[in-house]
Amino acid sequence: MLAKDETRTAASAEIKVIPAWAWALAGIAFVGAQVAFDLFIGREPNGPPPWARPLLGLLVGLVVGCYLLLIGYINRDARRRGMSPVLWTIVAIIIPNALGIILYFVLRQALQTACPRCGHVMHPRFTFCPQCSYKLTPICPQCQRSVGVNDVYCPHCGNSLRSQAAPVSSPPTRTITEEAQE
Ligand SMILES: [Zn+2]
Ligand SMILES: [Zn+2]
Question: 169 CA to middle of ligand 2, Å?
């Protein structure tokens, strides 16, 4: 149940990334497809039979709408991952058969995080902030390498983490999107 809820929360958070202009374009495309199939394509002599018009309009509208939403998502998502939004939006649009979109999801980098102390934007797997040396993840007191929050022994040097003071827990880091919305 919990995992399902988490998945749903993550999915709705991702949907919020899609900008308003992409929703507007998708809506226009969806309505446009209904109108096109009803008024123009359906009336042609070799066009689809009347019963197929609403179905085809619905199908084409959904496919084109989803395509536009994905392009909008990539435009915003690339920015918060330190990738070029312009480049990836163009790639998603010009490479046919949605291959540009697939390419983006294959190659996209991890979400960047902002340092809680100085706000510097960096790779999420950093242990220390490169600008202010803020400790971002728990580290082993003996070898100073990053360890998991629930680790009992250091996976690098075998040092017991339980006997020592608990490793410094990682502070809640904010993603760039959250920062941009403020
Ligand atoms: Zn910092
Ligand atoms: Zn260690």
Answer: 15
pLDDT at position 148 over 70 = yes
Type of residue numbered 14: E
Ligand lying nearest the CA atom of residue 122: 1
**Lowest mean pLDDT, pick from 19-33, 58-72, 148-162, 163-177:** 163-177
Does 162 share its domain with 181? yes
61 and 147, same domain (yes or no): no
Residues bordering ligand 2, an ion, CB closer than 5 Å:
140, 142-143, 154, 156-157, 159
Same domain, 82 and 116: no
Nearest-ligand number for the alpha carbon of 121: 1
Query: Residue 176: how many CA atoms within 13 Å on its side-chain side?
Result: 18
Ligand closest to the CA atom of residue 154: 2
Rounded to an integer, what distance in angstroms lies between the CA atom of residue 78 and that of residue 108?
Answer: 7
CA distance linking residue 102 with residue 79, whole number of Å: 17
Q: What is the mean pLDDT of residues 115-135?
A: 87
Q: Nearest ligand, CA of residue 151?
A: 2
More confident residue, 70 or 1: 70
pLDDT of residue 99: 95
125 plus 175 within the same structural domain: yes
Which ligand minimizes its atom distance to the CA of 142? 2
30 and 14 in a common domain:
yes
Give 134 Cα–ligand 1 centroid separation in angstroms.
5
In residues, how long is the chain? 182
159 or 136, higher pLDDT: 159
